[in-house]
TrEMBL record:
High-level lineage: Archaea, Methanobacteriati, Methanobacteriota, Methanomada group, Methanobacteria
Domain Photolyase/cryptochrome alpha/beta: 19-147
Protein name in the entry: Deoxyribodipyrimidine photo-lyase
EC supergroup of this enzyme: lyase
PANTHER family from the UniProt entry: DEOXYRIBODIPYRIMIDINE PHOTO-LYASE, DEOXYRIBODIPYRIMIDINE PHOTOLYASE
InterPro entries: Crypto/Photolyase_FAD-like_sf, Crypto/Photolyase_N_sf, DNA_photolyase_2, DNA_photolyase_2_CS, DNA_photolyase_N, Photolyase_Class-2, Rossmann-like_a/b/a_fold
Organism of derivation: Methanobacterium congolense
Cofactor: coenzyme F420-(gamma-Glu)n; FAD
E.C. number(s) listed in UniProt: 4.1.99.3
Reaction catalyzed: cyclobutadipyrimidine (in DNA) = 2 pyrimidine residues (in DNA)
Length: 454
């Protein structure tokens, strides 16, 4: 059953006698445990129509580059295989996602869309809403608890958000039943003037795209739901038990590495949470805190705060204290290029930067240290924020999303409290290299990163 709170009618248009039900897939790039997909299948069966799934591949998504496109296309290729097995046609068109949705909606009985929270995605939905002449329904599938159910406003911290969302987790943490499609659409011909993209050869698709090639693809992570599920199983079987104790230790390997797959909607957070919850591990509560409370706090922030891409989103106390210490003397001041090339005096910071550049993902604890030091070693907080966002969005597979923006802002005081006042940071939480050396075998982390191939 799909909970009613996940379903939102975006208009009140009457059902059309069209050729198919259209599922405009954009944020939930998977066939497994996808509420929007199962809703679309059930509607197609109800009105005895085939289901067509469309994905719009734009060449100019903000700050996306070869690394991001490669990972996403690997996932889309994996997805197409899964959809064919379910007798569903998957159409990838080379265009802005809203443009393709508007054209394909003309022949549709109804349109279903999944839900993203970034301003670019919201703008797409608004554009389609202006022209669509059939029912337009949005189904939320990338969070455990629908964002407006979790809270009706932006939450100040994890503590306030936790109290609210915990009231609803049990209701929404439910396995989704897969519905067979009654009328196959695999062999349907869908006329369109927009170029169609074949997913048979990912490298060939990439060579035909005019995209930013400055960041190479990574060999350390490959996209796709099947890959994500295998990684999850390995984590639950071999790493989960140590998660509570070692998740913050960069010298240990006790992370799930789910964030790139969650970023592209290639795996369901409900599936992840259920799989972990069903285990006997003593670390499962610590992991569920991260996958539900912390992750969905970031979604809450981006949904309710239009300033999520800039420092105006910080709490007043953080803005005030950073302003008061803006002119404090910095022992080190680095340029964007020096940061990007890992040319600081600090081997631990350099290793964190190189891990991100080489692999597409930085250890979570080191990402906090990384952001704090950019604040400390840049001439002012505003420039530091711009550098951190730019590097995070450029190299991380899981940048450019609610958790990416929230994670960077956390380094500047978001979702945190005031601490003891000091130079540069003011009352914003401070981190230093001595803490890394005291808590962890941090030199082994540096050695491991340095030994990695790009």
């Amino acid at each position: 059953m799909i909970q009613a709170e996940r379903i939102k009618k975006l208009n009140e248009k009457p059902l059309k006698d069209g050729e198919y039900v259209l599922y405009w897939m954009q944020s939930s790039q998977r066939a497994h445990q996808n509420h929007a997909l199962e809703y679309a299948v059930s509607k197609a069966n109800q009105i005895h129509k085939p289901l067509v799934i469309y994905f719009g591949l734009t060449e100019n998504y903000p700050e996306a580059n070869l690394r991001h496109y490669t990972f996403m296309l690997e996932g889309l290729k994996d997805l197409k295989t899964s959809l064919i097995q379910r007798n569903i046609k998957f159409l990838v068109l080379k265009c802005s996602p809203d443009v393709g949705a508007m054209e394909l909606s003309k022949r549709a009985s109804m349109v279903v869309v999944d839900r993203g929270y970034l301003e670019e995605q919201v703008e797409w939905y608004k554009n389609v809403l202006k022209t669509v002449e059939c029912p337009f329904v949005q189904v939320e599938s990338n969070v455990v608890v629908p964002v407006e159910v979790a809270s009706f406003k932006e939450e100040y911290s994890a503590a306030t958000f936790r109290r609210r969302i915990k009231l609803h987790i049990e209701k929404f943490l439910v396995l989704l039943k897969e519905v067979p499609l009654e009328k196959s659409s695999v062999s349907m011909e869908i006329p369109t003037k927009i170029p169609e993209i074949s997913l048979d050869d990912v490298d060939e698709v990439l060579s035909g795209l005019e995209i930013d090639l400055s960041v190479p693809k990574t060999e350390h992570f490959h996209g796709g739901t099947s890959v994500a599920i295998k990684l999850l199983e390995d984590f639950v079987e071999n790493k989960l038990d140590g998660f509570a104790e070692f998740r913050n230790d960069p010298s240990m390997d006790h992370l799930s590495n789910m964030s790139p797959y969650l970023h592209f909607g290639q795996i369901s957070p409900v599936h992840i949470a259920l799989r972990v919850n069903d285990s006997e591990s003593s670390s499962k509560d610590a992991f569920l805190e991260e996958i539900i409370i912390r992750r969905e706090l970031a979604v809450n922030f981006v949904h309710y705060n239009p300033n999520y891409k800039n420092m105006d989103a910080l709490p007043d106390w953080a803005l005030k204290t950073l302003k008061e210490h803006e002119d404090d003397r910095r022992k080190y001041v680095y340029t964007l290029q020096e940061f990007e090339t890992a040319s600081t005096h600090d081997p631990y910071w350099n290793a964190a930067q190189m891990e991100m550049v080489k692999t597409g993902k930085m250890h979570g604890y080191m990402r906090m240290y990384w952001g704090k030091k950019i604040l400390e070693w840049t001439e002012n907080p505003q420039k530091a924020f711009e550098i951190a966002i730019r590097l995070n969005n450029k190299y991380e597979l899981d940048g450019r999303d609610p958790n990416g923006y929230t994670g960077v802002l956390w380094c500047f005081g978001k979702h945190d409290r005031a601490w003891k006042e000091r130079e540069i940071f003011g009352k914003v939480r401070y981190m230093n290299a001595k803490g890394l050396k005291r808590k962890f075998k941090i030199d082994s982390y540096v050695e491991r990163v340095n030994s990695k191939e790009p």
